[in-house]
Every structure is written in structure tokens, then in C-alpha cells.
Write a structure and sequence with these properties.
Length: about 260
């Protein structure tokens, strides 16, 4: 039986944790995310040999793509080779594309197909975190929110659900406060015509401050990076990764690379 003093200290620590969580407005960290590396590279649908990555750097790789067109949901599973060092942390990513020739109907059946494919990826061995990469227009947001909710409801509670987000979704156009994801990764790149103003704003506030958007951030190797508070960094490269490209990223001027909290 714990001693009264020890029990009291434990209760006080739990109370302080709840107060801090309530003050920040951020959801508690999923255990699988807490075990994920602080840095990951995105490996897109192209041949990648990442066996040279330093220990402690993970890989979020596109494992499948779903193309929504009309009432169809076409699944394309990764065909490009991906080579990783044994034991490297890995996060399968499901990328969703919307056809512009045949605008998608966004039916319940299409939402289920997306959920089915992501759950298939999550069911593979040693997968504790899965990620959904799905950009939508304003009118399509309810469909995305429903799809994320359906995935989270069906996903094993021990597996964390990460989703990418446009930078605007985590700034003035914030709409993710009730999204059913365990991690939101706003992309601080490809931010459109207002990118310079947005980058200056993010630099001033040291990242995204919205409750659901402050735990992770995405950067691209071909755009300036900013000092941020976010603890987990994802890096996108428009070209195939190489050890030289990674070293260039790590050797960039300190003022332009993400700073540690």
C-alpha cells in the first residue's frame, strides 16, 4: 500500500498535469507518438535508399495512394522500392488525391474505402503510428472530418493517427479543434501567394500556436526553415533523399533551421 505522503504527491502531480493540459488546450500525447523520433523524413512514391539515415531519425513513407474520381476510389499501393536500416522507425502514409477531371462525389463508400486502406496499413507488423495525407477545399472539409472520425473509431486505440494539414488550417482558417486525430502536422511550406507574410508570422510566434497544431510541423528542403517550438519535425524533399542532401539540411545556417525546445 502506498504511503499517504507518496499518494498525496502523486495526486498533486496528476492535478498539475491536468491543469497544464487544460491551459494549453492541447490533447494528451498518445503513447505511440511519445515513442516516435523527434525527426522523420517523408519518403514519397519514388525509389528511396535510406539505409544511411542516422539512428534516431524515422521515415514516414507513402505506402498507398487513393485516387477519388467521380464515385470511384482507386487504390494504388507503393511500387517504388524503399530501403531502410533494420530497426528504423517507420510510419506508413496514405496519400489521397482528388481528380480534377472527374471531381469526386465524396460518398460514404469512398470514405469507407479510404478507412479500409489505412486500417490495412495499420494492421501490418510493427506499425504503431499511421498518417493520412489528404488536402481538401473548404466545401470538402466535412467529408475529411467524417473520414478521420471513422478511421479513429475503427483503429486500434494503441495505434496513433497522424494527419497532415495545410498551414492555413492552423492559422486564421483554423477548423481542426474537434478533429479526431492524435497528431496534426501543419506543413510550413508551399503556402501560396502569402507565403512570405505567413513565414514572417510563424517566425514571430515561433510556430503554430493553435491547440491542435503545436506538437509537430512539416518543412521542405527547398524552402527556408524557421525556428519553432514544435517538438516533432517532418522533412519533405522534392528530390530523392541522399546523405549529402541530409547533411546540407543539418548544416544550414542556425537561423534557418528548426530549433529544439
Amino acid at each position: 500500500m502506498p504511503r499517504p505522503r507518496t499518494l498525496l504527491l502523486d495526486l498533486l502531480a496528476l492535478l498539475m498535469l491536468r491543469i497544464d493540459s487544460g491551459a494549453s488546450g492541447r490533447p494528451p500525447v498518445h503513447p505511440a507518438l511519445a515513442a516516435l523520433p523527434a525527426e522523420l523524413v517523408w519518403a514519397w512514391e519514388r525509389p528511396e535508399d535510406l539505409r544511411w539515415l542516422p539512428a534516431g531519425v524515422g521515415v514516414a513513407y507513402v505506402a498507398s495512394t487513393v485516387l477519388l474520381q467521380g464515385e470511384q476510389a482507386l487504390v494504388y499501393r507503393r511500387a517504388a522500392p524503399l530501403l531502410l536500416a533494420p530497426g528504423a522507425a517507420r510510419v506508413p502514409v496514405l496519400h489521397v488525391d482528388l481528380s480534377w477531371r472527374q471531381p469526386p462525389a465524396l460518398t460514404d463508400a469512398q470514405g469507407r474505402r479510404i478507412a479500409d486502406e489505412l486500417l490495412r496499413l495499420a494492421g501490418r507488423a510493427n506499425r504503431q503510428v499511421v498518417q493520412l495525407d489528404f488536402e481538401v477545399r473548404r466545401s470538402q472539409r466535412p467529408f475529411l472530418a467524417r473520414t478521420i472520425g471513422a478511421i479513429r473509431a475503427r483503429l486500434d486505440p494503441a495505434i496513433a493517427l497522424s494527419v497532415t494539414a495545410l498551414a492555413s488550417w492552423c492559422l486564421d482558417d483554423y477548423w481542426l479543434h474537434e478533429i479526431a486525430a492524435d497528431e496534426v502536422v501543419p506543413m510550413a511550406f508551399r503556402m501560396g501567394g502569402e507565403q512570405h507574410a505567413l513565414r514572417a508570422r510563424l517566425l514571430e510566434q515561433r510556430g503554430f500556436t493553435r491547440a491542435r497544431c503545436g506538437a509537430a510541423i512539416g518543412f521542405s528542403t527547398d524552402e527556408p526553415m524557421i525556428a519553432v517550438r514544435e517538438g516533432r519535425h517532418y522533412y519533405f524533399s522534392p528530390q530523392a533523399w541522399s546523405a549529402a542532401r541530409w547533411q546540407a539540411l543539418r548544416g544550414a545556417p542556425r537561423s534557418s533551421i528548426p530549433s529544439r525546445p
